Amino acid sequence: MKSNLYEKKAQIFKALSNPVRLEIIDFLANGEKCVCEIVEKLNYEQPHISKSLIKLKEAGLIKDRKDGLNVYYSLKICCMGDFFNCLNKILESDLKS
Amino acid sequence: MKSNLYEKKAQIFKALSNPVRLEIIDFLANGEKCVCEIVEKLNYEQPHISKSLIKLKEAGLIKDRKDGLNVYYSLKICCMGDFFNCLNKILESDLKS
DNA sequence: ATTATATATTCCAATTATGGCATATATAGT
DNA sequence: ACTATATATGCCATAATTGGAATATATAAT
């Protein structure tokens, strides 16, 4: 169904449409991190970070791995680099115009 | 400011986080269209389309050009193709897993 | 078994998005 | 000037998102 595809795409963009979640993705670009590391790095309550991670995971952007008490999250997307390079181009061209 | 950059990026993603707006972008990929063409193509009220277009424009994703009574909108981003190819990869890998 | 620690879930108030409807504005033609 | 047409704006009810605070769950260590 075509409309479903647009819905699915919209969901991905929605997951990315929040500064905290974008910052998480940026941090995960350095490699797999556990929730506590992300909480420590960003300045938000742990429940908020947890919810953000779950939203990113539901969108298919990150994956998790449990190890003892810790849950490690990492990027699931190979092309995230291109993705964000494009975004930077948009932002640059926006500043010029 | 770093936080501002995340905010700005989030705004772009927010503009893309809606099926109607994604469908508009898809349609504009075929080239410049006036509002009336977009209204005709998609099945939404004209005011809603107008508001969607303005949101996309504010995010810096499309631009407009006035000609008589008509306003023509077109994609402002060169790398939209890569952008959406990446998205499709995400969706495919999501279906597999 | 008890305690400590990491993460997830629930609940909530405040804000923001959605999309329809009515209306306003702007331009073109007569 | 008047009318028609294209687009934008304002208003509104409903729904979704945000992020904090409290609490629950799960695992590890003693």
Helix-strand sequence of chain A: HHEHHEEH
Give the N-to-C terminal Cα separation of chain A.
38 Å
Helix-strand category of chain A: alpha+beta
Number of strands of chain A: 3
Q: How many strands, which pairing sense, and closed or not: the largest β-sheet of chain A? A: 3 strands, antiparallel
What's the helical proportion of residues of chain A? Answer: 55-70%
Work out the oligomeric state of the chains in this entry.
homodimer
How are the secondary structure elements laid out?
The structure is a homodimer of 97-residue chains.
Chain A: H1 2-15, H2 19-28, E1 33-34, H3 35-41, H4 46-58, E2 62-67, E3 70-75, H5 80-96
Antiparallel strand pairs in A: 1-3, 2-3
Helix pairs in contact in A: 3-4
The first copy, chain A, binds a DNA duplex (30 and 30 nucleotides) through residues 14, 18, 20, 34-36, 39, 44-51, 53-54, 66, 68-71.
Descriptive notes:
The structure is a homodimer of 97-residue chains. In chain A, helix 3 (35-41) packs across helix 4 (46-58). The model of chain A has no long low-confidence stretch (mean pLDDT 88). The first copy, chain A, has five helices and three strands, in the order ααβααββα. With 97 residues, the first copy, chain A, is α+β, with helices and mostly antiparallel strands. Chain A is globular, with a radius of gyration of 15 Å. Chain A has helices at 2-15, 19-28, 35-41, 46-58, 80-96; strands at residues 33-34, 62-67, 70-75. The longest helix of chain A has 17 residues, at 80-96. The N and C termini of chain A lie far apart (38 Å). In chain A, 27% of the residues are buried. A three-stranded antiparallel sheet of chain A has the order 1-3-2. Chain A binds chain B through residues 3, 5-14, 16-20, 22-23, 26, 60-61, 76-80, 82-83, 85-87, 89-91, 93-94, 97, and chain B through 3, 5-14, 16-20, 22-23, 26, 60-61, 76-80, 82-83, 85-87, 89-91, 93-94, 97. The structure holds a DNA duplex (30 and 30 nucleotides).
